[in-house]
Input
Amino acid sequence: MNLTEDGLPETPKQEVFVSRDGFASLFAVLKSRGFQIVGPTIDQDAIVYDQIETVDDLPKGWTDVQQPGLYRLNQRNDDKLFGYNVGPHSWKKYLFPPSVALSQSRKTEDGWEFQEAPDDPPKLAFLGVRACELAAIRIQDRVFVGGDYVDSTYQKRRQRVLIIAVNCTQAAETCFCTSMDTGPRCTVGFDLALTELDEGFLIEASTSEGKAIVEQLVTHEATRQQQQSAELARQHAVDQIKKRMDTTEIRDLLMSNLEHARWDEVASRCLSCTNCTMVCPTCFCSSVDEVSDLAGENVERRRQWDSCFNLEFSYMNGGIVRDSTRSRYRQWMTHKLATWIDQFGTSGCVGCGRCISWCPVGIDLTEEVAAIRKDVS
Amino acid sequence: MTSKASNMTTESRRQSSLWVPQTVVIRKITPEVENVSTYHLAFTDKDAAARYRFKPGQFNMLYLPGVGESAISISGDTQSHATLDHTIRSAGNVTRGLTQLKPGDTLGLRGPFGSSWPMEQCVGRDVLLVTGGIGLPPLRPVIYQLLNGREDYGNLHLLYGARSPGGLLHRNEFDDWQSRGLTIQKTVDRSSLGWRGNVGVVTLLLERLHSFDPSNTVLFCCGPEVMMRFVARTAFDRGMTAEQIWVSTERNMQCAVGLCGHCQLGPQFICKDGPVFRYDQIAPLLTVEGL
Output
């Protein structure tokens, strides 16, 4: 339950081994400790995050194949539970819900009364959080609780989350966490971190809650060979990452090229569909809708995810500020990679590659950055 | 509804207050010019009234349940605690909805939000307030503060433009302001019968202005972006630098606390980093179309 990147391991890293059968009992342990478990499961030919009850809900023996504009599930030739990378969902849907009530209004004889919307989120255990996703959560922590104003809906959910991370042992073609310095190794921000081996898992506990959970599992001291296998598997993910993004001086590169011809070029392909912002684990833009009863006397304000690709997003005084796809794509990419650094002291990109896979026309932001950099250097 | 509220801890109240408005009642509505009225609002909760302080240039989110919220600058005196004044042009859903209300009706208010005009910069200097139309109300708290401490400042000038003579706001206060030491020059885009004043853009007034020391002057400008750019250009011609100019910018402000993303202009969240910026900090962003 580390709220910030300050959640460093309390003791030196120590991994224990748990067999596949032992791992299955993790579900009961988590439930006994009051957690609802959310994790990877297959829905509509994709690995998504949803409520899961047993180990059988995990995508056993499946992997994902990803390229620009392409996502497919393939069967593996083994029974790995976490033998994939990332799908269209991210954990932000649990911490920053796509739709959440903020406030309520009630009309009384004395006029309008306002109060906070009731909000009692469950304790969730996130199972299967990748290193890039840990980084994304740290970034959203900065956005929602790290500034002058604290978003209580996010904070309340965040404080109740247990994070069980999984080290990647393979990479998708769209992965570039090594360029963003966010992975693939899980280093901070989790309660437990798993590395999947053929015969089971190595588990590292980094919080007292995590240690208490491990104590309830049947574990063995990790053998030297198991530790070596885990290290090899984690290195395999590093070696598979081929995509790169050069982030050298990227803020100044992009902000001094706001009129670059490449924005027109990418706008000729971009559909302004908002997919990249919906799948992005850090995008946080939202709008508020009024939800009223028929009499108009009980009104709820609901916050919904919004996107800078929506035309009305920049509506002001009867006009649209960003009235072209060029200006909207530029806003998204410069915010993600450049001005985010001014605002929050970190890039808004974690290198998960979702925006590349889920772009219907396969726009790859690493190529867009490279195209601008090529002309400048 | 009230039982839950009374159970809230101080901590959660601080956080919930981000999204939960205070109830305010309309004490009075003063029609100003066509489509513009000043709404004099008062908190129904005594504690909320006692806590509330604002600085010149800050804004509130006014909320009509079922309609929505709108960011409105506070146009009254920071020292007057009887009512909170908002001078509002009926333009969008919320401000049109406000025109349907009458004294005694209630609405929601969150605020104050945003940066303020740097009043400390005015001390010992000449002050130029350059604005147009509905841009005057956000500067009115500045005028009150300057005139209430008149001896602390040098020459004070208001250069004010409107489309037509009938569009000049707060005209009934001009005599009082002038008698207390504010020089007012007005201009209109289109003259009408009986108008003997200037016709043309407000920058003309700045071009011709005398009795100020450009090296020891601060300029506050509130208006459309194109006006701010031309005012700044004219100020440069008169020997001022970007570090002496402050402007109030506008974007689609929704959450008012930098969390919804709508009002971004480059690295700035206009709602919490602005709306008031020193010109050199915002000028490069104002010239990029569609940013």
